[in-house]
Amino acid sequence: MKSIFTSTLAIAALTGTTALAHYGMIIPNDPMISQEDGRSVQLTMSFSHPFELNGMVLDAPVSFSVTHDGETTDLLGDLVGAEVMGQPGFTLDYPLARPGTYVFAMEPQPYWEPAEDSYIIHYTKTYVSAFDDDEGWDTELGLRTEIVPLSKPFGLWEGNVFQGIVMLEGEPVPYAEVEVEYYNEDLEATVPSELMITQTVKADENGVFTYATPTDGWWGFAALNTAPETLAFEGVEKAVELGAVIWVRFEEWDD
């Protein structure tokens, strides 16, 4: 990974106002598994601030599944507890039986966030291609909210554009706000301003958004909307943030 940022997180930390965007995370060891890589993919699940590598507690999800060739399989019972970024998370070693695209999806339990005075539910997914077959790369799962890829969500070079449609209750969301953040795995990337930790773009009137990444690695896209219902916290009804999250890896351009 080529670090292209020019200052340090310490600057933001000293201000006391560092932006801490939340992301559900499903990170495979490789989004493109070839025959030479073996016949399984290793996944790590967490709820985190990916740029700062600050973990939060991920309780046992409401659901965790994989969809391949039109068939969805429940994997909730196969998750293994693990520590991720210093907090409880999960891992899974999933065998890949056939070629094609596997879409892993997670619905977490509602997370109470005092700083926002609301609950957070991030419907999270990622796409993995097996054995050089990309069939199914644009699969829509029909989640309550999700980002449906218009760009193939793997096999992208750094600097490529990623496009997706923000969906909520089966319909595109005009002018949806999408937060974009880099998974700073080695803490090598730094920023000149805390405002650059989480990038923000808006979808167009058809719910389509576009973003070009400046460097290789994993990038998270989170489209945020407010649910019509509320949840009670200590006897008081609170708002619920619904996040449609997709994780996409961009490969280094080595010329």
Task: Give a nutshell description of this structure.
With 255 residues, this protein is mainly β. The chain has one helix and 21 strands.
Describe the structure.
It is a single chain. The protein contains one helix and 21 strands. The chain has one helix at 9-15; strands at residues 23-28, 32-33, 40-49, 54-56, 63-68, 71-74, 80-84, 87-95, 100-107, 111-113, 118-130, 145-149, 156-157, 161-168, 171-172, 177-182, 198-202, 208-212, 217-226, 231-233, 236-251. The chain is globular. With 255 residues, the protein is mostly beta strands. Strand 5 (63-68) and strand 6 form a beta hairpin. It is 3% helix and 51% strand. The model is unreliable at 1-19 (pLDDT under 50). The relative contact order is 0.21. The strands form three sheets. Strands 2, 5, 6, 9, 10, 11, 13, 16, 17, 19, 20 and 21 form a twelve-stranded mixed β-sheet that branches. The chain has one domain (17-181, 201-251). The two termini are 14 Å apart.
Overall average residue pLDDT: 91
Q: List the total number of helices.
A: 1
Instruction: Give the CA-CA distance, first to last residue.
Output: 14 Å
**Class of secondary structure makeup:** mainly beta
Please describe the biggest sheet, giving its number of strands, its sense, and whether it closes into a barrel: 12 strands, mixed
Write a concise keyword list for the protein shown above:
255 residues; globular; disordered N terminus; mainly beta; 1 helix; twelve-stranded mixed beta sheet; five-stranded antiparallel beta sheet
